Every structure is written in structure tokens, then in C-alpha cells.
Sequence to fold (152 residues):
Amino acid sequence: MPYGPAARTVLTRSLSESVAAPGWPVVRWPPGRANEIIRPMKLEGQAAIVTGGGRGIGRAISLRFAAEGAAVTVAGTGRAHLERTAAEIRNAGGRARVAIADVSDEAAVESMVAGTVGEFGRLDALVSNAGITGPTAPVVELERADWDRTLA
Fold:
């Protein structure tokens, strides 16, 4: 997998001879592989919420944020998918929590944010990735409730 210029400043001849760019923490990723790449963690010490984080693009974002050092709240409505993604992050040595939250519900969002700050001590990033498939009709034929639910 190619990495950007900052990551290429970390050269590894062997795992015992790695040198990182000054001030950048380093990580062995992926864990458990011989000759792994040691590179900077861009989100070390930060915390993020990824809505819709259990599947698809949201899952990929959750995993990438964790690989970059962020503690991640994997949020959404499907507990099984969220738990699998969070377990994958933890199994790779990352920090993750699950928040069951419908982003159209203000109280659920407040709880999601409070839980993240409570567990990780901060919140630095929000990826608003949650979405639903709305009604398939011309806009002029939609009920206001359907429009609101789809765009919430």
C-alpha cells in the first residue's frame, strides 16, 4: 500500500533499525506481520465519531482512523455490524467503543457525543457518514415526513 511523503520519512531496514520523523509517533501496521512498515500515526491521541461506522465506507473510515491512532466511536443503528467493526479495531490494538444512535434523534446524538467524551476524554473529529435510502419518488410527490427523515 503506498503512503504519502511523511510516511516515507520512516524507513525500515529491519524492525530494529527504524527511524521516525522527529515528533511523530510510529506504529507497526498491520500488526503481527513480519517486515511490517513502521510509519507515523497521523491521528495519535485524537478521538473521532464515525456515524454509519459499522458497514461499507463508514467501516473503512473507522478502521483507517484507528490505524492512524485515533480512538473511534463506531456509531449507527445496527449493533452487530458496529460490534464487529469495534472488535476488529480492538483486536488490532486500537481503542473503540460502540454507540447505538439514530442521527435523526437529537437525544441519541447527545448521548453518543457524551459517551465518546466520557470514555476518550475528548472529541476531535466527526465523520457524518450515516444515511438511509429515502423514498423513490419525484421530490414534489414526497411527504414532508419522508423528506425530513431522509435528510436528517
Observations:
- The chain has a mean pLDDT of 80.
- The helical segments are 5-8, 56-67, 79-91, 106-120, 144-151.
- The chain is about 35% helix and 20% strand.
- The CA atoms of residues 35 and 76 lie 36 Å apart.
